[in-house]
Amino acid sequence: MAHPRAGSQVARDPHLIYLEKSFAMTFSHDLLVFGASGKTGLHVVRLARAAGLRVAALLRPGRDAEALERLDCTVLRGDALNASDCAAAFAAAQPATAVSLLGGRNEKGERVDATGNLHVIDAAQAWQADLRFVLLTSMGCDEQFAGMPEQVQQLLGEALRAKTQAERHLRASTLTWTILRPGGLNDMPAVGGYLLSDYPTAESRNYLSREDVAQAVLDALGDRTRAGRAQTVSARPAA
What we know:
By secondary structure, the chain is α/β, with parallel strands linked by helices. It has helices spanning 14-23, 39-50, 66-70, 83-93, 115-127, 150-171, 210-221, and strands spanning 29-34, 55-59, 74-77, 95-100, 132-136, 176-182, 185-186, 194-197, 208-209, 229-235. The protein has 7 helices and 10 strands.
């Protein structure tokens, strides 16, 4: 194996450089967010900051951090599909609570709903065994799947199965967890409320503002009486 000559320049992995810069300092935060760059995730960060919470978020290298930085959110660079990045994020942020809104695929077609969330859950448990943790998945996961219309099962089956895998992994953990399952989401302004139920209701078919879902996430983080429950989040009926 050839070794570099003394004083020579060695090419370095840009990803490792990102991690070194991000994780060189250790902070203490109220909340660590995974999936913060998405539409709902940005609402979570914004509402948390408005409430005075210290927030950190894991963001993949190359993703635009401007919106998060404007909210004075600590941006940690890393990929949830890399287990060591998730562990490093918890060590750097030292959070009191954590939330994951991870979903979808990466450029290689890998579903972050399952693998990414499994890494986050394992890292959270390693950081603090009973950490308060909220996982945002979707209506139709796990025991709700059989009750979904056949068209929904066909169109969303792969995503729902991936999210179900994450839910089951979380249930088996020692974390102080809550699972939230919203239905369809839209980008309309918040109506200032939402409904919670153990099973989908007639209202669950209505589209729900992402901002209201974000508020539901923060409310759940602050309510330990809801620990150990999976709840459907629905739109509040119009007055």
